[in-house]
Amino acid sequence: xxxxxxxxxxxxxxxxxxxxxxxxxxxxxxxxxxxxxxxxxxxxxxxxxxxxxxxxxxxxxxxxxxxxxxxxxxxxxxxxxxxxxxxxxxxxxxxxxxxxxxxxxxxxxxxxxxxxxxxxxxxxxxxxxxxxxxxxxxxxxxxxxxxxxxxxxxxxxxxxxxxxxxxxxxxxxxxxxxxxxxxxxxxxxxxxxxxxxxxxxxxxxxxxxxxxxxxxxxxxxxxxxxxxxxxxxxxxxxxxxxxxxxxxxxxxxxxxxxx
Length: 259
What we know:
259 residues; two-stranded antiparallel sheet
C-alpha cells in the first residue's frame, strides 16, 4: 500500500485519460467547451485530445450536435484485461446465485492504485425495487463495508488510515474512533457491515479477498435497502459471504480463483 514519493507522469496522457473518463461518466453527448471547463483544460488542447480519441475509435463525434460520446472501441481495450482477470468470470455465477438467493445486489470490487476501488462485476436480484451501480464506477478505498474489509487487510497504521478516512465522505457521518473500533469486529467476524453510513437507508455487507501475496485485492459486497433485509437475513447472507471467502484462493502464478 506504499505510494512512491515521486512519479514521472506524461501530462498529455493524463489529460487524455481524464477526458476519456469524463465521457464515460457523461449520460449524453458533450461539447468541447463543456469538457474543457469541467476538467480545467485549455480548449484547444481539449479539442485535439477529443479529435485524437475519435481517430483511435475511442470516442464518437456527432457533427449535427457538435458533441462527443464514448465509443464502443473501448470495449476491445477492456476485453484484453477481462480475459486476464479470470476471477471475474469464475466469481460471476457465485454473485448471481447470492443475488437471487438473498434478494440483494451483489458487487465485485477490485483495488486500483492505493486509494480507490473499481466495480468490475455485478449481479442483480429478481426484485421490483433494487439498488444498481455501474460497472466501472469508482469509490474511495474506505467507502462502506468494503472499505472496512480492505482497511483490515491493508496493514496501514492508525495514522495512515485516519489520513484516508478524513478524505472520505459519508452520507451519515461517523467519527474516526468509532469507525476504527469497528475494525476489530471485522477481524473477529471476517466480514464488515455498514448500515447507513455509505448511503442513508442502505445496508452493505462485505468480505475482502486478498491476493496470493496476502495484500488487499478484491471485495465482494451485497447491497440492499435496509428495510428489506432484517437480522435473520443478514446473518444468512454473512454466512454465505464467509463461505465464498473461505473457498476462494488465488493461484499465485495465474491470478485465477479456485472455487
